[in-house]
Every structure is written in C-alpha cells, then in structure tokens.
Specification:
about 85% helix, about 120 residues, single chain, mainly alpha, 5 helices
C-alpha cells in the first residue's frame, strides 16, 4: 500500500514537473522547491508509517507520549523546510508547499481511481 502511494506521488510529480518546465520561463526555483517539498512529504509519510507500526506494540501511555513527540518532530521538519524555502532565493515557497501536500493528493487520487484502495 505504501509503495502504491509513493508510486502515484512520483508519477504525478513527474507530470507536474513537465508542465512546470514548459510553462515557466525560469522554472529552476519552482522545480527545486517542488522536489524539496515532495521529498519531505514522502519522508514524513514513511515516518508516520514506521511510527504507527512501532506504536501498536507499546503500552497506551507510552504510545500517547510517543505520538505527541512524532507529531511535533514532523511539524518541526515542515517548519524548517518552509522557512528555508522562504529564505532561499533558489527555492519557490509556493511550490514547496504544494510539494508538501502531494502524499495527501495521491491518497485522494487513489481513493477515486482504485476500488481496492
């Protein structure tokens, strides 16, 4: 299931990157921001998956604390990535944000297309 989602993210991202390359005169900052956002989105998805597998075996009180820590760490990663994209001239902030939402978009696409999902 995870590989299916990541595969859809990569395919959609390649299509979007192709459109970006043809539509914009200077696409490099947009492409770099989008790739950064998509990469972090996939990383965050894998972190959620790995932590969910580990949390199942923990006792509830420990799992609750670990869940809060995992959420805050992902939130901090998003904050750092968006801060870097806002400060750096070679990254586009909007493209980075859109890249961060790609896993969620891929899940919505799979819900609509794949009946077994």
């Amino acid at each position: 299931m995870n590989l299916k989602i990541i595969r859809v993210v990569v395919i959609c991202s390649l299509i979007i990157l192709g459109f970006i390359a043809f539509l914009f005169e200077n696409p490099k900052p947009i492409i770099l921001g989008y790739i950064l956002g998509t990469s972090i989105s996939i990383l965050s998805f894998n972190l959620i998956n790995n932590s969910a597998i580990k949390l199942i075996t923990m006792e509830p009180s420990m799992a609750k604390r670990r869940t809060y820590f995992n959420f805050l760490s992902r939130f901090l990663i998003y904050f750092i990535v968006l801060s870097i994209a806002a400060i750096a001239d070679y990254l586009n902030l909007l493209a980075t944000f859109i890249g961060l939402t790609m896993v969620k978009s891929a899940i919505y696409i799979l819900i609509r297309i794949d009946k077994d999902f």
